[in-house]
Amino acid sequence: MPHFTAADLAQLEKVYRLNLVNAITGFKPANLLGTQDPAGRTNLAIISSVVHLGSNPALLGLVMRPPSVERHSYENIRSTGHYTLNHIHAGIVKAAHLTSANFPREESEFGACGLTPEYRDDFQAPYVQESYLKIGLTLAQELPIELNGTILLIGRVEHVYLPEENVLRPDGSLHLTAAGTMALSGLDTYYETTPVARYGYARPHQPLPELPL
Ligand SMILES: Cc1cc2nc3c(=O)[nH]c(=O)nc-3n(C[C@H](O)[C@H](O)[C@H](O)COP(=O)(O)O)c2cc1C
After folding, report:
1. Residue 36 Cβ < 6 Å to ligand 1
2. Which residue's C-alpha comes closest to atom 22 of ligand 1?
3. What is the pLDDT of residues 180-209, one digit of tens each?
4. Which end of the chain is more exposed for a tag (fewer CB within 10 A), N or C?
5. Ligand 1 center to residue 1 CA distance, Å?
6. Burial grade of 121 (CB within 10 A; 0-12, 13-18, 19 or more)
7. Closest Cα to residue 129, out of 30, 44, 192, 62?
């Protein structure tokens, strides 16, 4: 089987290595990060590194690339303290990918990519109107990762907006396939999902409770 050691990885051509290492974690969530500067100029960027850090308080992390070049989302989050995450579905996947292009600061990816900023409940960051599942966050902590200059941004969940029907189950879990939420691998491939099984709380030496999908 193909095998790469750390020394092999270090010697790979840059794009090959980037493609490989970005895919080895498995499928990742596909989100659009919505921000604005203090003057209200909006920004949108696709982000695959969102991770759950805890439920009480509800905290989400995301990894920002090193701010060695202009990072508009990062600058906006630092200056306003607010940002949104918006799930990507098939209807907006092309526009979502396009947000990763290097647009100049004064050009909003919303307009350039054909997506609509939406404001809710006086929150100081734009949501994506076309997205079905959206989260508003306040920056709670920044953790610089000294090994490579990336930054773990930790946000406290302030708002969660869900679609009207068929997504929120009675126990609080979410049927993300019904919401059209996509997954992504590497930096380039998007997937619709098919649920395979759903299990209840696991206990040693007891049959797993099977839950309806
Ligand atoms: C599929 C995909 C996933 C990405 N995930 C991240 C990520 O998790 N963190 C990050 O900093 N950039 C990520 N990027 C890159 C940003 O989308 C890109 O740098 C964007 O231009 C940032 O825009 P900004 O300068 O307006 O903030 C990703 C790009 C793609 C195509």
Report:
1. no
2. 45
3. 999 999 999 999 999 999 999 999 999 999
4. N
5. 32
6. exposed
7. 44
Largest CA distance in the chain: 59
Q: How many Cβ atoms from other residues are within 10 Å of residue 129's Cβ?
A: 15
Protein residue whose Cα sits closest to atom 15 of ligand 1? 100
Please tell me the distance from the alpha carbon of residue 119 to that of residue 121, in angstroms, as a whole number. 7
Peptide bond into 57 cis (omega under 30): yes
Instruction: List 166's β-bridge partners, or say none.
Output: none
CATH 2.30.110.10, domain 28-191, yes or no: yes
Claim: this prediction has a pTM higher than 0.85:
yes
Ligand 1 contacts CB of residue 35 (under 6 A) = no
CA–CA–CA angle 160, 166, 169 (5° rounding): 65
